[in-house]
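Hi all, long-time lurker, first post. I run a small reading group and we've been trying to get comfortable going from sequence to structure in the token notation. Rather than ask abstract questions, I figured I'd post a concrete chain and ask someone more experienced to write out its structure so we can walk through it together at our next meeting. Sequence below, copied exactly:
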Amino acid sequence: MSCGSCKVADMLEGYVPYNDQERLDKYVILDYLRTSPDIFLRSNLKAHMTASAWIVNRSRTKVLMVFHRIYDSWSWTGGHADGDEDLLAVAMREAREETGVEALPVSPSIFSIEQLPVDGHYKNGLYVPSHMHLNVSYLLEADDSAPLKVKADENKAVAWFGLDEALTKPSPAERWVVDHIYAKLNSKLKEIL
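-- Answer (accepted) --
Happy to help. Here is the structure in token form:
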């Protein structure tokens, strides 16, 4: 493992899983970190590290979502590490690029972890085979009055939704993500309020 990978592994070792999904996903992600030197690169066609953000407003009553082009659904922000082992920086960069807002961490600590299956698809005319995203999520906060900006090559729209409303916006095909990830993120958020 590189020193950066050691840092991510150390953060994950100290992370207390919220439920069985996180407990098992933590085990799998740590195993990949220990055994796959290219885990932070998309060139690893089996699985690679990603970072996401659950972006809330200052009163923590709304969440900022994007309408994702590939999935044709409302979703959180996030993206590939692409060699960057500072996953909080990745989550913040992706939030800014995908929404146009400056979102800052509520805490530098990991907010959630998950393995996310990605079906094979075409991106920029090239086929991307099915693989896993080994994802670390952060809770970020942004000004809900700041102007929003669509990243046209990745999303079609950006909007704020009430916490419960956010669970109704993704397409039916994204039901697993809503039930196991977004609902979990909202539950964790409500616990810290």
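A couple of things your group might point at:
The two ends are 37 Å apart (CA to CA).
The longest strand covers residues 131-142.
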